[in-house]
């Protein structure tokens, strides 16, 4: 009887998880735009939780999530204590934007390209953190460079950028980022394992040139 209770509870959690991450939408988008998705499955809850933990919640300023996808990291940011009115999610894919707006009706989900970030945000707002799931290794290099320039521009007054990558060594895009690495952590409970890095843009200096992306 107790065993049945446990498995029913687990089945309900699995079904809730699948409903939220909408694997159909994810795999359809992966099939249509593999380079822009850059992942073989949605981020795990463990990865999402570790990303969210890097975000300072007590300060003021906006928290910007880039590449919201299925919303796993959006959920973790809210659970971490980020107030919904401080959070803006930028996503390029229409099907993901639609899902995110359904799942998080109280959050501003912006349909746009992270390479144009400063044009998508209200002018003059302080940005405290950028939390990015963007596949910087598989996007075209000019887009990746434009995205990193936006971080540089928007975070120069003391914000942080948090990015994960499946490249557990130094990914190529790091050579274009003028920022100080303040944290680095590997999350093994993700498919594939991922490295989360946090960057600070005050007193920035160029990071070292790097290895190629896989
Ligand atoms: C690794 S996937 C999604 C990760 C998300 N954490 C998840 O688990 O569902 C990367 C996301 O970045 C989005 N994306 C790619 N290029 C983008 C761009 N230039 N601007 C905004 N979003 C972009 C993709 O549409 C996709 O949703």
Quick synopsis:
This protein has 214 residues and is an alpha/beta fold. The protein has one domain: 3-Layer(aba) Sandwich (Rossmann fold), CATH 3.40.50. It has eight helices and seven strands, in the order ααααβαβαβαβαβββ.
Description:
This protein is of the alpha/beta class. Helices cover 37% and strands 19% of the residues. A 7-stranded mixed sheet has the order 3-2-1-4-5-7-6. It is globular, with a radius of gyration of 17 Å. S-adenosylmethionine binds at residues 36-39, 42-43, 66-67, 69-70, 72-73, 90-93, 96, 113-115, 133-135, 139, 143. S-adenosylmethionine (SAM) is lined by residues 36-39, 42-43, 66-67, 69-70, 72-73, 90-93, 96, 113-115, 133-135, 139, 143.
**Number of separate strands:** 7
> H/E series, N to C?
HHHHEHEHEHEHEEE
Average pLDDT figure:
87
CATH class: Alpha Beta
Low-pLDDT residue spans: 204-214
Distance between the termini: 49 Å
Number of domains: 1
Q: Can you list the strand order of the major beta sheet?
A: 3-2-1-4-5-7-6
Assign the CATH architecture. 3-Layer(aba) Sandwich
Total of helices: 8
- Identify the overall geometry: globular
Distinct ligands, ions and cofactors found in the model:
S-adenosylmethionine
Radius of gyration: 17 Å
Label this structure with key terms.
disordered C terminus; 214 residues; globular; 8 helices; seven-stranded mixed β-sheet; alpha/beta; binds S-adenosylmethionine
